[in-house]
Amino acid sequence: MEKHAEELAGIVKDMPPITLDEMSSIRLMNRMDTKFVTNVETLKKLLQMACGSYFAQNTGGHPYSPYQTTYWEDPEEHVMFRTHQCGHRPRTKVRVRTYLDSNHTFLEVKKKDNHGKTAKKRVAVPSLEAVIKEHAGEEFLTKLTGYTFADIVPALGNRFNRITLVNYDKTERLTIDFDLQFFNYETQAEQDMDNIAIIELKRDGRVPSPILPMLRELRIKPSGFSKYCIGTALTNDRVRVNRFKKRIIKINKILERGAQ
């Protein structure tokens, strides 16, 4: 789980730290979200370039945090996977996320509306096991989605590490996910993507971004990446993945460049 964590932490350790409480005070009023995909070798270069322009979130003495996420799905029709693959809106995802360094767990519902805006709501639950075995949070789930836990089941789990950066002007946040691993509940298949890095830039669209010129210099281009959909496409041969085949080929080319 920590294949690259300590090495990447060694690069960002010289960035001034920012606490979770300080992070919570940052409000991006005109937020724009963009994802980028690269390999770990290129990510190292990006982090070295970003030193001097960013704070690094520090949790428990580490500049990275381990996450565990489990996605729920309709076991017969795989509706949430299919609607995303087809680009349908509005669409919904249901997941349970555990912040492994604090052991805090939340049942989350993410919705993307017809205008492409994503809203996330969540409720604290005792644990992933409490959701699976005791249906903790079901009232919240039904209120937001109409589903009960009789309708949807655990479908895909993932684990990854995350580095979070904030620019000095506090007008943007960068989340960088790496050491990604998948486990499929339906097929029992596992898949590692520990050499891929997913960067998400959340910024105030009114001001310049220090990271964008660095991304361009390293030829890291915007690219959508749904952990749920890519993970499902890689671990479940019972669903049709036609629309993700080109995306997976592109990801493999990014990985190959990092191995050269």
Model description:
This protein is of the alpha+beta class and 260 residues long. The chain is built from nine helices and eleven strands. Strands 1, 2, 3, 4, 5, 6, 7, 8, 9, 10 and 11 form an eleven-stranded mixed sheet that branches. The longest helix is centred in the last third of the chain and has 15 residues, at 245-259. The radius of gyration is 18 Å and the shape is globular. The mean pLDDT is 89.
The count of strands amounts to 11
Q: Give a quick account of the main beta sheet: strands, pairing sense, barrel closure.
A: 11 strands, mixed
Mean of residue pLDDT?
89
Helix content: 25-40%
- Poorly predicted sequence stretches spanning 5 or more consecutive residues: none
Helical segment count:
9
Query: How many whole angstroms does the radius of gyration measure?
Result: 18 Å
SSE string: HEHEHEEHEEEHHEEEEHHH
Proportion in β-strands: 35-45%
Query: Distance between the terminal alpha carbons, to the nearest Å?
Result: 23 Å
General form: globular
* Class from secondary-structure proportions: alpha+beta
